[in-house]
Amino acid sequence: MNKQLLSLLATALLLLGSVAAPSTAFAETPAKPAAAETTTVNINTASADELATLRGIGPVKAAAIIQFREQHGPFSSIDEMMAIKGIGEKTVEKNRLLVSVE
């Protein structure tokens, strides 16, 4: 009877330990801050590939941004992107915190 009780307690402790271990592992892993994941894209110096990472900007619009800045010089504000065909207020607003001109 003692051996059975001891075996039962040992099994219970092992099971309890294996259930509790994963929860502590998650608690020890720090979450990455959102700011560290977000980098801004300078629309005056970015490559087409970098520009294409922006929301609503694919390869064609990225090429249009580069062509615009080559013809008109560097952007002085993010809102100037609306002068490019296919880029409107919604696209600019989606990317306002993701782009810079400096």
Structure description:
It is a single chain. The chain has helices at residues 2-28, 34-37, 48-51, 59-72, 89-95; strands spanning 41-42, 99-100. The chain has a two-stranded parallel ribbon. The relative contact order is 0.14. By secondary structure, it is mainly alpha-helical.
Quick overview of this protein structure:
With 102 residues, the protein is mainly alpha-helical. Helix content is 55%, strand content 4%. The protein contains 5 helices and 2 strands; from the N terminus they run ααβαααβ.
What characteristic shape results from the CA principal axes? rod-shaped
CATH topology of the largest domain: DNA polymerase, domain 1
Number of helices: 5
Return Rg in Å. 27 Å
Measured distance between first and last alpha carbons? 78 Å
Number of individual domains? 2
Which structural class is indicated by helix and strand composition? mainly alpha
Task: Count the beta strands.
Answer: 2
State the CATH architecture of the largest domain: Orthogonal Bundle
Secondary-structure element order, N to C = HHEHHHE
The pLDDT mean sits at 83
Q: Considering DSSP H and I runs of 4 or more, what fraction of the residues is helical?
A: 40-55%
At the fourth CATH level, what is the homologous superfamily of the largest domain? Answer: AF1531-like domain
Low-confidence stretches: 32-36
Strand content: under 5%
Please state how the strands of the largest beta sheet are arranged side by side. 1-2
Largest sheet: 2 strands, parallel
CATH class of the largest domain: Mainly Alpha
